[in-house]
Amino acid sequence: MEFSVLGLNDNARVSLNTREKNGITYVDIKMTLDNVSIPEKFKIRWSYPDIDIYSVWSPSLKADRFLAPNWRKRTTNSRLASWMPVHSLISMSGHNRLCIALSDTKTPVSIATGIREETAAFDCDVEFFTVPTAAIKEYSATLRLDTRDIPYCDSIYDVTKWWEKECGYAPAHVPEHARLPMNSLWYSFHQQLDPEEIIRQCELSKPLGMESVIIDDGWQTDDNNRGYAYCGDWEVTPKKFPDMRGFVDRVHAAGMKVMLWYSVPYIGIHSKAYKKFHDMLLDGSGKEWFCADPRYSEVRKFLTETYVNAVRDWDLDGLKLDFIDAFALKGKSLEHDPRRDYTSLEDAIDALMDEVTRALREINPEILIEFRQSYIGPTIRKYGNMLRVGDCPCDAIRNRCAVVDMRLTSGSTPVHSDMLMWNYNDKAESAALQFASVLYSVPQISMLIDKLSGEHLDMLRYYLSFWLLHRDILLDGRLTATNPESCYSIVRADLDERAVITLYNETVVENVKRYAVAVNASCKDTIYVKDCAGKEYEVVSCTGKKLQSGVFGGEAVSAVKVPMCGMLFIK
Prior knowledge:
Layout: E1 4-6, E2 12-21, E3 24-37, E4 42-49, E5 55-57, E6 74-78, E7 86-90, E8 96-102, E9 109-116, E10 121-128, E11 136-146, H1 152-166, E12 182-184, H2 186-189, H3 195-205, E13 212-215, H4 244-253, E14 257-263, E15 266-268, H5 272-277, E16 281-282, E17 289-292, H6 297-314, E18 318-322, H7 345-363, E19 368-372, E20 386-388, H8 396-409, E21 415-416, H9 428-436, E22 444-445, H10 454-469, H11 471-476, E23 478-482, E24 490-495, E25 498-503, E26 508-509, E27 515-520, E28 526-530, E29 536-540, E30 546-551, E31 557-561, E32 567-570
Parallel strand pairs: 12-13, 12-22, 13-14, 14-18, 18-19, 19-20, 20-21, 25-27, 26-28
Antiparallel strand pairs: 1-4, 2-3, 3-11, 4-10, 5-7, 6-9, 7-8, 8-11, 9-10, 15-17, 16-17, 23-24, 24-25, 27-32, 28-31, 29-30, 29-32
Helix pairs in contact: 6-7, 9-10
């Protein structure tokens, strides 16, 4: 591959040093400026032949996996608090053809690929400093280009390990409760929070296997019209929670941990904080709310003390820290202000998260901290120990795709599903599809337990018990997912010759060793099992009802009737 540098101004020079190691190309990039100044955008470009390439993969592209021409490139945007710099080209057979990654996951960059019509080859670009940063004299990073003919999952796993072990992004400690199911109240309550009703839901949730409750937006305001105009002070509204500490104590007595939601950046115009920080804001969050600017030490101190006081005074077990990706430089915030102790917004967000998490872990080393898409990258993993799928109510496909995308890039950090919800009048099998789509994540439930029909409750009880029984396979097993261009047709996790295999668009099970469970998340009623002669099997419905059992005969392929969201156990 031949590389060119585009867009440099007269003040900057870039050197590229290419080396090979274990079949991977590394390009060491060093930029030098004549004087300390804010660097301007520049690109590194190369061409890569379109040979046996079928789709493109990146967490920020979500389910859109088409290739696109070079005049409308598929682009991965990355900065400290949004996504990550990894972008892959994949064959139809699911093998890696080119996995592009960058060592620097903090600086705003983009990775883009698109077909050049004249050559049937990809124009590949990595653009640096896509958002203004602090003034610097030098910059260095390493571009990693993996063209090995290996399963695409493995190429992405290797990038995650590279970030952790060689690029300095060691992830945060994971408390045990970050790996256990939760009742998250956003979809079930929204802002209509009632402590007595929440306690009742906790008492119903705990026996089902949910170990924590997340109290979402609404505890800090009497206004129930959504939006964030009343955010910023983070004082409990006494009309909803006259005694927050007493409420937390009662949840603890019910056997559950308590997490509380905060919108980190937002300061609304109706808050006292708006008057205090009105000239320390980033422009452009909303007409009635703005983002605080973490480049001011006063802002970081205020936010850190807010969370510390809440955790200490109310005996909270964790925080849901929301909207980290909303920090953005716009308008007046682009102008210089000598009161700031940081120039770079990315550095300031990093400092804020470091200050917050250090202070919280001094109070409780096992503190739970949830972040959600798109702030899920390697830098954020240093601070959060729960990474959740972005909001996708009732959307099994979106939840499934995001869970797998995040599992490929999150290492040992637990991936959480978006909160599961469904229509109370739907069929149990359809409701179960929401759960079957997120088996390889920690499930968060957002349904009123006492409103569930008997069949829905049986389904939820069974799926949670199944998940807890197979948690080691589901969370710690080696995850593989076929056909990323089709939203992953089969996903499986393997651990110690045991496997859980979820069939979404295909219905063939193979490579069964000591033990396997096949979950039928397709619309078909038959699963085809290869090479399992002599093995015992059992079929259960989505509510756990035993439907049939037997022993596989000598056929190379056996057909077994399994209803939608039912399971086939093979041993």
